[in-house]
Amino acid sequence: MARENIYQEEEFPSPLMQLWYNFKKNPMVMLAFGSYLALAILAIFSPILTPFSSSQSHLEYILLPPAWNDDGNVSFLLGTDKLGRDILSMLMHGASFTFGLSFIIVIISAVIGVLIGSLSALTSGFKSSFLNHFLDVILSIPSLLLAIVIVAILGIGLSNTVLAIIIVLIPQFIHITKNEVKKEFSKDYVLASKLDGASPLRLLRYSIFPNIIERVITQATLAQSAAILDIAALGFLGLGAPSEIPEWGAMLSNGVDLFYIAPWTVYFPGLAILFTVIATNLVGEGLRHALKQRKVY
Amino acid sequence: MVALLKVTNLSKEYKQREYFFQHKVSTALYPINFSIDAYKTLAIVGDSGSGKSTIAKMLVGAEKPTTGEVELNGQILEVGNFKQRCQHIRMIFQDSSTTLNPSLTVHQLLDEPLKLNTSLNELERAQLISETLQKVGLLSDHMNFYPHMFSGGQKQRISLARAIILKPQVIILDEALASLDPSLRSQMINLLLDIQEQMGLAFILISHNLGIVKHFSDQIMVLSEGKVVEQGDTIEVLSKPKQKYTKKLIMSQQFQLFSR
């Protein structure tokens, strides 16, 4: 009897899997992706993982240098700050504020942006223009300034910072979604499925979104690095997280007046911000590169 | 006897906005009439911009005609009713690389028209898909493949499978063979003729290649700038063209015509 299964390969990679294969090829990007995942795990599980509570003061160990210093103590690996709090615990806990919040911010603004953007692409004329551009004013105001305005109205606090950054990030998602959806709509397969009687929602679900999702994700990673920097900057300026919360920007501003006596209280939060932003940016760049490498349809 | 597809007074005008409240009307297609029977092929030839593709788009329902009607088996097809239309009139597009959704498998691609237009259950649909794939010369193994794993000719076959899966009566080929190389093209033509024989289809072939038209079609319609220049039996028109435009068109492609 003739063998029916002619093709030996068992796996048929979908375009998304292909993207992953291309993404996987670059070791530098994979390293960054690993760090990214580690940060995500840290952000979720930091209360369990930290050696001390981030708010616990060890009054006998105020301004203790890192453990490799002669005066250091190995139970406080990265030293303590002016209130005797363990810096390592604060950094770990801070991951859920600076990194975790930025993640949530990006997801919320991406969902809102994609919704408005696809509505704008589906409508035409004035409605479409309005949906596309009504948040554009925000693009002309620097995000910090806008956050200051919002904080001035609503009061200082982390939740107001989050709100401000969400609003700042929405327009770029609207624009990218609108452009990509329009581009997809002009392709023949959308017309073909429209002629089959598919409703606009079905078109979006099956023909459009699977083909633009990677580009939205790429935009999201780039937006996240901006969000991290904004949260940290607002925390540093004292407009975002209050100083008792171990947010990295707030930690920096706590340590900055003691910089000459205890430089480690500034170095470590600063390095944490740098590391996180670089990891996030590298993941975004890797995604963009993998998208470009993948065969253009 | 009622013709399978009858087109009366079909025309299309486009409005272009120039200044405020001023429209410039450009006519893409002046009123045309034609009809086709089952097992027959009508070829529409002409330069680019002559209104060939406009006819195709209006027949398939992608664009609204300015005037005129399309009748199928004596029944008028309503504008905007895709469900009624797509079961009888299907179209194969020119560019095979953009007619297949790159993120769906062949199975999902062929499943979509069935899901939307028939009441078959999943097993019957899978059965029908694998039969249709075999009909166009592919294997049922190909069901789990993604479009990027196929060559241009194979993609065009999938488009054909997608077109015939609803058992339509008319298929419109909008330059569907232009992007293929000659050997694939002749394979595809033979496949199309076989399927026409099996299923009793009527084809509307839109092409600028007179060689294919001569081989393939029974009737021909020559269009120029939205007007019908000449209409009639393919062999008659091509061997004894009456109009100057048709003569020019034939002259310009003489090499291809005589080399066959």
Task: Please summarize what this structure is.
Chain A contains eleven helices and no strands.
Structure description:
The complex is a heterodimer of chains A (297) and B (260). Chain A has eleven helices and no strands. Chain A has 297 residues and is an all-alpha fold. Chain A has one domain: MetI-like fold. The longest helix of chain A has 37 residues. Chain A is flat and about 75 Å long. The model of chain B has no long low-confidence stretch (mean pLDDT 84). Chain B has 260 residues and is an alpha/beta fold. Chain B has a six-stranded mixed beta sheet, sandwiched between helices. A four-stranded antiparallel beta sheet of chain B has the order 2-1-4-5, with helices on one face. The relative contact order of chain B is 0.17. Chain B has eleven helices and ten strands. Chain B folds into two domains: 174 residues, 3-Layer(aba) Sandwich (Rossmann fold), CATH 3.40.50.300; 68 residues, no CATH class. In chain B, α5 crosses α6. Helices cover 39% and strands 26% of the residues of chain B. At the A-B interface, α1, α8 and α9 of A face α2, α3 and α4 of B.
